[in-house]
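Q: Fold this one first, please.
A: Sequence and structure below.
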Amino acid sequence: QVEIWLNHVLDSMRATMRDEMTEAVMAYEEKPREQWLFDYPAQVALSCTQIWWTTEVGIAFARVEEGYENAMKEYHKKQVTQLNTLVTMLIGQLSKGDRQKIMTICTIDVHARDVVAKMIAQKVDNAQAFIWLSQLRHRWSEEERHCFANICDAQFLYSYEYLGNTPRLVITPLTDRCYITLTQSLHLMMSGAPAGPAGTGKTETTKDLGRALGIMVYVFNCSEQMDYKSCGNIYKGLSQTGAWGCFDEFNRISVEVLSVVAVQVKSVQDAIREKKKSFNFLGEDINLVPSVGIFITMNPGYAGRTELPENLKALFRPCAMVVPDFELICEIMLVAEGFIEARALARKFITLYQLCKELLSKQDHYDWGLRAIKSVLVVAGSLKRDDPERPEDQVLMRSLRDFNIPKIVTDDVPVFMGLIGDLFPALDVPRKRDLNFESFVRQAVLDLRLQAEDNFVLKVVQLEELLTVRHSVFVVGNAGTGKSQVMRSLNKTYQIMKRRPVWTDLNPKAVTNDELFGIINPATREWKDGK
């Protein structure tokens, strides 16, 4: 009964989204785009802008074939104007939801603009050119009243799954290549397997493709504890809902389990290939929703990873992921945060991180990769919104300095400050301070019977700043340098400010992995929560 009710609720939500999309597509040309996008939810507005991008490029191609040579260039000018309007809106006052919506549309718009610019540069005059066919193109079918996504010779029905107002990835040439591989694998009734080093976007690209097709993507972190029953239960759920499953670091599962998993994956793929409505899985008849997708990501060559068995390898199309273009990602994210001089600032940003990687000492806690870059960009965006009159290079310099200084060891600080001074000459921007918060910190430190020295207060403030952009933070240092007291002081500050206390003491040496993270009881299949 509960299952029937849930299915009914989900179907009605999908029908509502489809109706919204129908209305939004029809209303797109009735008013300026910057007004139109406030009338619809984020997911609907984004999908419709992508549908109209495909439509307008198609119209431009048709005009080129009729002999109007500048049609594509004129459309490119229109794109630049639309994008500049959105960037201007981002600098102004917006609600959190509207800001996220416009940032997401900006991110996709920049890629759309670059694709058109590339086609102009290569003098493409035909809609059948591979550079255009290889893009993920959304279109609206009037007869079927459905949204379809096409890429190369594959076509997918948009799933209308409610995904919320979520950010989208910056699309680089690497993302495009991964999209093609994964969509072709689905088109051939197979599964996809992005592989590559950490931080190259294997999981995120899979999730982003799911968002583009309106499909829910569930990410499972695989471990040695996973057995064939727990994997089988996950595949059973995915098959009945039509959702995608992304199995992270799949080659950490032991090889004995993987050979059984191969049989389970093959039975799902065979059922899709034979267009069955239901099939037998682990001795049980279950319904099949054909949009189901199974993806695995692998980090090759690390300790504790196994080689995939041949029968499992044959079911997955591999896609090699390499280090992405950091400068392009940085530039597009700066545009989405409302920066006008994004290109020049992105070059300075990436140059600084490359030099830090080469010139600073090698510390275990240093991270100059994509995740660290993304965190600083979020900080830069919030600083720009708080102080819109300040020049953009000062905003970026302040965020790069204030976000990185807390993690840099004392010996490296002069080198780091020298690099900042070289890249941003003659700039000396004061640190952004919250004097009210600092007074609470001083009160908390005194309540704990400690001395409220400026350096100690600064460390508490820095920890609080890091926690606003990071889910978890390591406090690193030698014994007796005040690591625990900094955290206790921040917790006491939260208590004084009537904010929810976050402090729980736990010695990891005193608990096992299973007690800390939780475990499935192998006999009863019940899940026991961790600490």
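Q: Good. Now the second chain.
A: Here it is, same layout.
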Amino acid sequence: KMAAAAGAAAAAAGLWSEVNRCGQNGDFTRALKSVNKILQINKDDVTALQCKVVCLIQNGNFKEALGIINTHTKVLTSDIIAFEKAYCEYRLNRIESALKTIQSASQQTDKLKELYGQVLYRLERYDDCLAAYRDLIRNSQDEYEEERKTNLSAVVAAQSTWEKVVPEDLGLQEATYELCYNSACALIGQGKLNEAMKKLQKAEELCRQSLSEDSDVTEEDIEAELAIIHGQMAYIMQLQGRTEDALQLYNQIIKLKPTDVGLLAVIANNIITINKDQNVFDSKKKVKLTNAEGVEHKLSKKQLQAIEFNKALLAMYTNQADQCRKLSASLQSQSPEHLLPVLIQAAQLCREKQHAKAVGLLQDFADQHPANAAEIKLTMAQLKIAQGSVTKACMILRSIEELQHKPGMVSALVTMYSHEEDIDSAIEVFTQAIQWYQQYQASQTRGANPKSPVHLSLIREAANFKLKHGRKKEAISDLEELWKQNPKDVHTLAQLISAYSLVDPEKAKVLSKHLPSSDTMSLKVDVDALENSHGATYVRKKAGKLTGDNQQKEQGQGEVKKKKKKKKGKLPKNYDPKVTPDPERWLPMRERSYYRGRKKGKKKDQVGKGTQGSTTTGSSELDASRTASSPPTSPRPGSGAAVSATSNVIPPRHQKPAGAPATKKKQQQKKKKGAKGGW
């Protein structure tokens, strides 16, 4: 027994040396085989179990490693294997479990703190994550300091993008392209697009310099690394309205076939937003990229939500009503307070001509979520206007209390009421808005009564509206209030005098004394320059030098208007002044009385027509009863002459000039036309 034990110990020692050598060489597959042999000797060897878990992690077998940890909980306690367990859970996308494992560890090692920061970032707990990385940078000094700073800048960029938090200046030197890229993302979140584009260009330059130093890196590898930077550049172009440039860059990235499924999903989604309701077949192809495996672990919640919204909209644009309803209902169940799902459902109902149902759906949502009621009611009002129910739209708009006093809302309501010729309601809208500003400013100034520019502007607009619609008495109080605020305002005083002149002339006379005198109102205007300006309707001609004859004419006869010389008309080359012009020369050739059609060969026309010995001359031409002096006979049934009298009237453009004689040839031509059945 002692010899067997000694042999087993010697074998184990040899195996451990093999494990150590393979570990140093990075050959974890061979190391795993040696560890398994050790465990055959002693299945509960804690060190061997730890080594096996590490070998499996290094080989990417996270599930198997986690299984070994969970089956040997008595031996592998949380104090010993906490980091490996949390790391396996993190890599298997069990983020919540990883967080619990880290928090349950008795000792927070540096490795656990690093992993804790990564877990918090994936859970989008950016404030806690920022604090964790600051603590790590403050208390760590090793070769990984640059990576920690990069992660810290990524957290700041995420806060700026998704939480709209203004990032603080961390004082990080942007020496690497990763730091430069994250800084650009933070600037995009703040809306500083031009600055962000410059940062991305700098990041691209740094990336090329960094990778070109490695001789093993090809140009394709560099382009693949630059894909994410180019993707952000295209996004900035899209935000700036340069959609064609953005689309071109997006498609270039897709052609590279990057391995990052998250990047491909974002680019495909952005292309779909550019296409909108156009090029839907291309959009349907791009949607497949957003459904790739693992996308949900690469993107933030808001990114995934935006992709799902666009899928629902694309289903609506492609007339997939059931799919649209299904997707929007799923989104609404996930985010009950979000506006977009219910708006998509309402839009789909409108496409199906169910406007009343759409309005009802929006009304239910507004009742359930009062915080979002304003935007929903604006949509309801738009639907009512589309249906022609302007008055109902006004009622909906006036129910939005937080917007009643806004100048834009007042303007919209007054315009709509004016369209409906409801002047009283329009004036009521003005009155309510003015009262709101009076109450607000009274509360802010503790009884003082200065008017804000918006308040004064509303009063002026109300006065102008009342004057326009003949409400002089109502306009007077508004004008007096305006004049009281600014007694030097001549325009308001003039309006007030004009209004009083129709209501109280005596009062108008009294007020007119406050008008400035004509001397003080004289304007320094160059009349000549004004008359000769480009926009003047009348331009005075400059006086030229007058000769002696011209002076006499002006003194004796006054100004004589110059007569324009008529240009002589061009005469035809064959014009003969002795010959009277053809009175029918203005008519088309076909409508002239002497037109006989195109000339054809006589022999060709006569050969083979009629019986032998007969002539081609019509019998109607030899019949004396059909001459011009004879009364017209009744037309034959079915002939072209049997047309209503009105249809034979020649249009005015073709009428014969007055006084032209009706020749015999003209009558004959008409008869020929009638015999042929008309044309």
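Q: Anything worth noting on the second one?
A: The longest helix spans residues 2-25.
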